[in-house]
């Protein structure tokens, strides 16, 4: 049993769905257990997203670029189960969108943010104090002010019961809500 209550940092690991083999054949829990500081592992509720993309070896604090824009305009930083929604949203913006799987919520990949006009964060968690709000504050402190910043997360409200897909649609956390927001930032009008 490992316990270190006085660590300087807490790591948050957010797998985007299924478990995969890590360098030593370990699971995400084995990966977390090997740390000398507390680690939180968040798992999505309901069915998990399974994709066929090749994955790089898991490295502490390292995000995974899943799709890279040929002409960078939009970057989507997605956490956990929201990666699938980020990839579905990206289908509307072929060639101009970069999608990043934020395996760890920190550090944000500032180098990617500065290359794009529109920065989007996606998480299935609380907006207030969440990943998106932290990312926006960090970018502002660093002087990286995008043309538009979109925080796709749960507003401060009571969330009713329902399937994850019903709730994502009801609380405007899917590509049907996000794509028009991005188009607005691009100066496009659709429909």
Polypeptide structure, described:
- It is a single chain.
- The protein is globular and about 50 Å long.
- Strands 3-5-4-6-7 form a five-stranded mixed beta sheet, sandwiched between helices. It has a two-stranded parallel sheet with strand order 1-2.
- It has 191 residues and is of the alpha/beta class.
- Helix 1 links the parallel strand 1 (11-13) and strand 2.
- Helix content is 26%, strand content 19%.
Give a brief rundown of this model.
This protein is 26% helix and 19% strand. The protein has six helices and seven strands; from the N terminus they run βαβββαβαβαβαα.
What share of residues is helical? 25-40%
Which range does the strand content fall in?
Answer: 15-25%
The biggest sheet amounts to: 5 strands, mixed
Unreliable spans: 1-10, 17-22
How many H/I helical runs? 6
- CA-atom Rg in angstroms: 17 Å
Number of DSSP E strands: 7
Order of helices and strands: EHEEEHEHEHEHH
- Termini gap: 58 Å
In round numbers, the mean pLDDT is 79
Structural class: alpha/beta
Shape summary: globular
What's the oligomerization state?
A: single chain
State the strand order across the main sheet.
3-5-4-6-7
List keywords for this structure.
19% strand, alpha/beta, 7 strands, disordered N terminus, 191 residues, two-stranded parallel ribbon, globular
Topology overview:
Layout lengths: L10 E3 L14 H6 L5 E3 L22 E4 L6 E5 L3 H9 L6 E5 L8 H5 L3 E9 L4 H11 L6 E7 L9 H7 L4 H12 L5
Parallel strand pairs: 1-2, 4-5, 4-6, 6-7
Antiparallel strand pairs: 3-5
Helix pairs in contact: 2-6
């Amino acid at each position: 049993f490992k316990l270190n209550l006085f660590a300087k940092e807490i790591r948050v690991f957010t797998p985007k769905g299924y478990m995969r083999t890590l360098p030593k054949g370990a699971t995400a829990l084995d990966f977390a257990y090997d740390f000398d500081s507390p680690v939180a592992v968040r798992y999505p509720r309901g069915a998990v997203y399974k994709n066929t993309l090749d994955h790089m070896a898991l490295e502490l604090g390292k995000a995974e670029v899943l799709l890279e824009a040929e002409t960078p305009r939009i970057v989507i930083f997605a956490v956990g189960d929201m990666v699938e929604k980020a990839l579905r949203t990206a289908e509307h913006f072929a060639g101009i969108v970069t999608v990043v799987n934020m395996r760890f919520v920190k550090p944000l990949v500032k180098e990617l943010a500065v290359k794009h006009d529109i920065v989007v964060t996606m998480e299935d968690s609380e907006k207030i104090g969440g990943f998106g709000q932290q990312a926006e504050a960090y970018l502002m402190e660093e002087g990286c002010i995008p043309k538009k910043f979109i925080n796709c997360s749960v507003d401060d409200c009571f969330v009713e019961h329902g399937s994850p897909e019903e709730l994502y649609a009801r609380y405007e956390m899917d590509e049907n809500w996000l794509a028009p927001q991005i188009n607005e930032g691009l100066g496009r009008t659709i429909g």
